[in-house]
Design brief:
It is a single chain. With about 220 residues, this protein is an all-alpha fold. It folds into two domains: about 55 residues, Arc Repressor Mutant, subunit A; about 150 residues, Tetracycline Repressor, domain 2, CATH 1.10.357.10. The chain contains nine helices and no strands. The protein is elongated.
């Protein structure tokens, strides 16, 4: 077990340090073994200091899950909002970010698996999960809408919603496969498979970052 150096910092920084120690502990020992004592030892602080920031272990776990999901979503949103000349390029970057490190790695999978079991039994975990899913799908809907507009297709809201749901499911499945058995896909990057699959879902729209302009009917 490695101890964190708990430096003098602001209240917000100290809280973030404790959440990071909580996530490290859960990733290495599992949710049930992530006791307040263990987290305090890992962070190099007293249990009393932890209680200053979190009134209960459950509250600390809720904060850790929210931080994990915010990190996952934030990374891929940054990719989608990056400097890309086309909507297709932004959607492509979003897909690749979801299936590449640091989003797709063993530690994040371990954390996700540890927390997901609580979603069905803890209303706060369920709410965090719902908020995260809704935010992620909203980004996807906007990306799909922009791609359809760029390809001069009808960006019907119901269609964009259905496409976002389907693409989200596709990404989730490939993310699980890649983080569980990434060595099986060394010759065929999962991001390439995802891009081709999304292109098919979009009715053949190519997600090349610099597509040729659409052919106009005369």
């Amino acid at each position: 077990m490695s101890r964190r150096s708990f430096h003098r910092a602001s209240e917000a920084d100290r809280r973030r340090d404790l959440i990071a120690a909580t996530l490290d502990c859960i990733a290495e020992t599992g949710l049930e073994n992530a006791t307040v004592r263990e987290i305090a030892a890992r962070a190099g602080v007293t249990q009393g200091l932890i209680r200053h920031y979190f009134v209960s272990k459950d509250q600390m776990l809720h904060a850790a899950y929210r931080d994990l999901m915010a990190g996952l979503i934030g990374g891929v949103m940054d990719a989608a909002e990056g400097v890309h000349p086309t909507a297709r390029g932004r959607l492509r970057a979003f897909i690749v970010a979801n299936l590449s490190t640091p989003v797709a790695d063993a530690k994040r999978l371990s954390l996700w698996a540890a927390f997901i079991s609580r979603v069905r039994v803890d209303p706060v975990f369920a709410q965090i999960h719902l908020e995260s899913y809704t935010a992620f799908r909203s980004v996807l809907e906007d990306l799909v809408t922009d791609v359809l507009k760029e390809a001069e297709r009808d960006p019907d809201p119901a269609t964009c919603r259905e496409l976002a749901i389907a693409i989200n499911g596709l990404i989730d499945g490939l993310w699980l496969e890649g983080t569980l058995a990434g060595e099986l896909f060394a010759d065929t990057p999962l991001s390439d498979i995802a891009i081709r699959s999304v292109e098919a879902l979009l009715g053949g729209i190519c997600l090349d970052a610099n597509p040729a302009p659409p052919i106009r009917k005369t």
